[in-house]
Amino acid sequence: MSELSVSVIQVSYGDDEPMADRIQRVADLVRAEQGQDLVVLPELWPVGGFDVKHWDERAQIVPAPGPVEATGDPERAVVEALSAAAREAGVTLHGGSTVERSAEPGPEGKHLWNSSMLFAPTGDLVATYRKVYRFGFDSGEARTIEAGADLVTAPVGPFTAHLATCFDLRFPEYFRDGLDAGADLLIVPAAWPMARREHWRALLRARAIENQMPVVACNTAGTHAGDHEMGGASVIIDANGSVLAEAGDSQQVLRAVIDDEHTAQQRKNFPVLASRR
User: Fold this and answer.
1) DSSP string of 131-156?
2) β-pairing verdict for 112-119 and 92-101
3) What is the longest distance spanned by two Cα atoms in the chain?
4) Total structural domains in the chain?
5) Residue 256 belongs to a domain with what CATH number?
6) Whole-structure pTM over 0.85, yes or no?
7) Which domain of life is it from (predicted)?
8) Which domain, by its residues, includes 140?
9) Which residues are catalytic?
10) Chain segment 179-238, per-residue pLDDT in tens
11) Helix crossing, 197-211 with 172-180: angle to 10°?
């Protein structure tokens, strides 16, 4: 059996906190989780969930995977702070997501993406995931940023993690694709609102149960962009769909241990995945 000790940092913030202050505060929260194996942050915490009108001015450069050079460039502040925090804490860090500005435009001619970054305990950037399913239908994220096109998996301890973000949860076929790619752990940062919190809870358990894999999901707390109250309820779920830890409505750190043997045993004892046609 190989265990993975997980910390989920449910960050709370409001519109009055400067971006630079929040980056420093969150990096310090990561450092405080030294001794854990995996630390996960929420979606869009540096730039503000739902704060679409400020995304362009707050967008960040996301470098190619590899060592992260310390440049002091404000447009690399997020990646450099998270790389340093992962290295100093000695943890694998899923940095939630930020708005990325790319040098080349995407298919729709935009330069902005909702991008997640995964860092090794060395501080190296090991994987980047650009959110595939954009929220907003004909406004907000759907109008402002490009849609990613690639399914991304990455090794995290004894697991292979499928990286997804928030609104992706509503498309179960995407997680079957992750399962078929060899994933046995799902990591989901989000900026999910209070108004649809029960959907968040139900969808996360459904993804765990139907794919027989643990789910580590980190949401935000607080009120963003004036009146968007965030739902909190970050959660760690095992491969049987059992909730190991769940947060409330405010800032909180969840900790739990998951192991690959439990996942393998669940799949063996109830071999539903083998019955797929």
Assistant:
1) -SS-SSTTSTHHHHSPPP---EEEEE
2) antiparallel
3) 53
4) 1
5) 3.60.110.10
6) yes
7) Bacteria
8) 3-275
9) 43, 131, 166
10) 999 999 999 999 999 999 999 999 999 999 999 999 999 999 999 888 999 999 999 999
11) 30
